[in-house]
Amino acid sequence: MDIVAVGYPSPLTKWAFLFLEKALRQIVPDLSVLRFDRFDTLADKPSSTENRLILSMFPNPAFAEDYLKTGQRCLVFADDLIEAVRHTQATHRISPYEALRPISAGLVLARPFAQSPLCKIVGRDVRGTPVDILNMFLEHFGLEISNDIVQGISRGIGFEDVSLSAKLREDTRDLAETSDEDRDVIAQVLGGLYRSLGHSTPGEITWPRQCFLLGDRPNSVTPVAIDLTGRARIMFYGPYFHLPRGRWKVRVLVGFSQNIQGMPFSIDVHSRESLGKARIFAKHGGIFDFEFEAKVTTPHEPIEVRIMSEQGAIEGHMGLVGIDFKEWSLLPKDMASAT
């Protein structure tokens, strides 16, 4: 028997994985606990026992495809996005925008599981006592556990006589608060993925300026406007987020100062391979948008966007407003398998 639970990095996922493992070790004989990363498949994780608990924050697409063919059940944990970012930021001592990278990966890679009719999506607003919640988890897999065992596990992890949401708030109360600007960025990057988690069509996604890095100063956050003076070069790059597999319409919004002197720019979206390219010729100042298509085939790979000037400049400024991904559709290969 396989029991699979997935969830992007967050307080809820951390707690639920621990709760599940402790409970199952009490009631399932010879349990193997396997933790899958984004490059792991079932063949990479052999087990000497028939009973396996498989936990993954970044399930590989091939693993998801193979597992879902078996018709077995799974759990997907979907925590509050702000709390997920705070947790990831504190755990790895990184910026909020860097924390978006693993969370976007986890959200994208959980989608195939969440769309299965045999999946149960669990948020932090689930109600009930620890006994109620764990029984709900286990009943999904046709398992039972005594109340005494659950209460002992709950005491061991400090989860007694409070709601799950209260327990998770208590665990993160000392973490840094999230600014209004950061909340807005989190909503733009992750909101569409979160709201559409259990649906076949992902929502619209925006990668705003704040998520990109400055070509002249690697690892520096991009300001509102940058100086174009100098040689041809990469102006913006990043943000190393993830997108669901499929065909996307990409809309890039940029601005140029009035003293721009007719400059060509190129944009390249790539992961392991090029996903899409475009070219724009800035004849004069103003804010402009342009669109092109990108095809994502490896959702477990982070995506880099590079915006480059193709010739040197003696004056002028440029600003990146953001990049929208919208009007998603299936790839031709996936259309054939869906029919």
TrEMBL record:
Lineage: superkingdom: Bacteria
Protein name as catalogued: Uncharacterized protein
Lineage: Bacteria, Pseudomonadati, Pseudomonadota, Alphaproteobacteria, Hyphomicrobiales
